[in-house]
Amino acid sequence: MKPDWPAPFSVRSCITTRYEYLLSMISSRQSLPSGGVGQEQCSARARRALAQQLGLPYGIQWLRQVHGATVVESRADGRIHNADACWTRHTGVACAVLTADCLPVLFAARDGSVVAAAHAGWRGLVRGVLPATIQALNATAPLMAYLGPAICARHFEVDAPVKQAFLEARLPGWDAARIEDCFAAGRSPGYFQADLFRLARAQLVALGVSDIYGGSECTYGDVDRYYSHRRGQDRGRMASVIWLAGSN
After folding, report:
1. Buried b (16+ CB within 10 A) or exposed e, 197-208
2. Distance from CA of residue 218 to its chain's centroid?
3. Which of 11, 15, 71, 244 has its CB 3.0 to 4.6 Å from that of 85, i.e. a possible disulfide?
4. Rounded to whole angstroms, how far apart are CA atoms 15 and 148?
């Protein structure tokens, strides 16, 4: 799937879907084919194959995602860091996050100088992964963002402590009234329908990112295209990948 946004010519991006074989192997929770091959070997092989398929000579920076706000620079050393976002100014090496219901956010500078990918579930949003990513980018040109497929408010019911965590976060763009607008009454007393897309948009705008695209694809509702942990039918994940391909 190619994100629909007016990114600079040098910026490339893609989001895999559930029927792509490679991601069934990349996800650590997905069952593996028989034949005695270890799970880590399968994952590493699939990740190398995806990098080759996308024409990335220096590979993809994969992360051991921990629902936090740590941001690392994408490097071609093969290391997998404990982080939830990565960025690069170099061609040939990509940034990637894996999601299934959490929100993937892709960033690109308008001049094509730097890109990033962030894993923004509700915990990551509360802990500040978006402002941390923007700070790490240190872009001199305006940024644009693409909100990839995530669970939509209709299917994302949370309890009162989750809403309270947002109210207490005190991050840019989140005053109490705006947060209240992102939580509708749930189906049961004390529960709410949380809108990750609106929460992310509000914070991005407060951080100076006004060019925001995507935010309409629901992982839970679109059974044919996306994995969803809440739906419970499988345990795969999608990869959201972004990189600089050069201007030639």
Report:
1. bbbbbbbbebbe
2. 13
3. 71
4. 8
In CATH, the number for domain 11-150+210-244 is 3.60.140.10
Beta bridge partners of 243: 12
Q: Comparing C-alpha atoms, which of 7, 74, 19 is closest to residue 212?
A: 7
Q: Which residues lie closer than 8 Å to 35 by C-beta, 6 or more apart?
A: none
Tell how strand 85-88 and strand 115-120 pair up: antiparallel
Residue 18 has φ and ψ, to the nearest 5°, of -70, -20
Q: Report the distance separating Cα 103 and Cα 122, nearest Å.
A: 8
Q: Are 179 and 167 a contacting pair, CB within 8 Å? A: yes
CB 103 within 8 A of CB 145: no
Query: Looking only at Cα atoms, what is the longest distance across the chain?
Result: 57
Listed in sequence order, the DSSP H helices in 1-93 are: 21-26, 39-53
- Helix and strand tally (H, E) in the chain? 7, 15
Kindly report, residue by residue over 54-103, the tens digit of the pLDDT.
888 888 999 999 999 999 999 988 889 999 999 999 999 999 999 999 99
Helices (H), the chain: 21-26, 39-53, 122-127, 129-137, 160-169, 176-181, 196-206
- DSSP class of residue 2 equals -
Cα 216 to chain center, whole Å?
14
pLDDT per position as a tens digit, 170-207: 887 778 888 999 999 999 999 999 999 999 999 999 99
Phi, psi of 156 (to 5 degrees): -110, 85
